[in-house]
Amino acid sequence: MAPVGTVEFDSVPETAVLISNNVADHLVALGQQDRIITLGYPEEYYTGFYDELPGVEFETGDLTQLLGGSFSKELLYELDADVHHIDPVFRTQTNSLSQAAIDEVERNVAPFFNNWYSRAHGYQGDQPYRYYSLWELLDKFAQVYQVRQRSQALTRVRNKMVAEIQAELPPQKDRPLVALVTYSPTKDTFRRHKLNGPGWGKAHTRPLGANGAFEDMELADGSGSFSMEAMVETDPDVVIYNHEWVSPGGRSEKFLALSSHPIGKNITAAQNDRVYLGGTTTQGPIFNLFQIELTAKQIYPDIFGSPPEPGESVPESEQMFDRQHVADIINGDV
Prior knowledge:
Elements: E1 16-18, H1 21-29, E2 38-39, E3 64-65, H2 73-79, E4 83-85, H3 88-93, H4 99-108, H5 134-145, H6 148-168, E5 177-184, E6 189-193, E7 211-212, E8 226-227, H7 228-234, E9 238-241, H8 250-256, H9 268-271, E10 275-277, H10 285-299, H11 301-304, H12 323-330
Parallel strand pairs: 1-4, 2-3, 5-7, 5-9, 9-10
Antiparallel strand pairs: 5-6, 6-8
Helix pairs in contact: 5-6, 6-10
């Protein structure tokens, strides 16, 4: 797998070091969550989707926190894991580990195995770097843990749901204009995101084929500042707060109150109560299934039913994939 090349194991890894939440979700999807011994911020990991899958649990309380000052070569020696699900290119690009340290850890502890920049196709280095889809990455992890039947079965669930959704979509000209944003209540401004941008970070929005409000912007995704007045001028039919579904807080409350904002109330989405908290970009396959369903309901409620509120579940009669079937796959009943 790029960028690490061919990686061989004497046996299935018993312990895995990882930082990113999306990798944790990949391992949970494959029924390998008990092998995880670290996370970037374990206490912040969202497990709400797992609560809807019978018999699927992921306890994060005893995991070692790797971000926030503790990440180092010495810690990787101390953890002594069988695999590091960390992208070494990303770590060298961000200066959190030198190439010499990575080489040393690979020789003396365990290999690295991850691909981070497929999230948004954002690698800016000089060496070739291949991008994978979310579901291609799942298959790579499944090969490590020798559970490819599970990855293939989950991929079929996703493909079936997406095909059923796309079969119901209206012509492109009749689809809503959707603004994917992050919001700063202190500055009362937005950062803009491309709804249909590349990478697994948009794997829950891109398949839905809506008209993105910012697809033609030249700035990098999520950069710059966009005023409330400019948002009124753009006048989207739907506004979605990127990432916020899994961690709502004070910003979310003010965002959801756009209909009471002296300027924001003039946005069509605010007038029609079409302002939503969106899924996270740091998603693996389980998150992706739930977030495709969530986003389909947010963008096309007349077709797929009303979306749930944060903390709520979709009624069984309105669910777009079988929770029990997914749980069975995760637990090895393929």
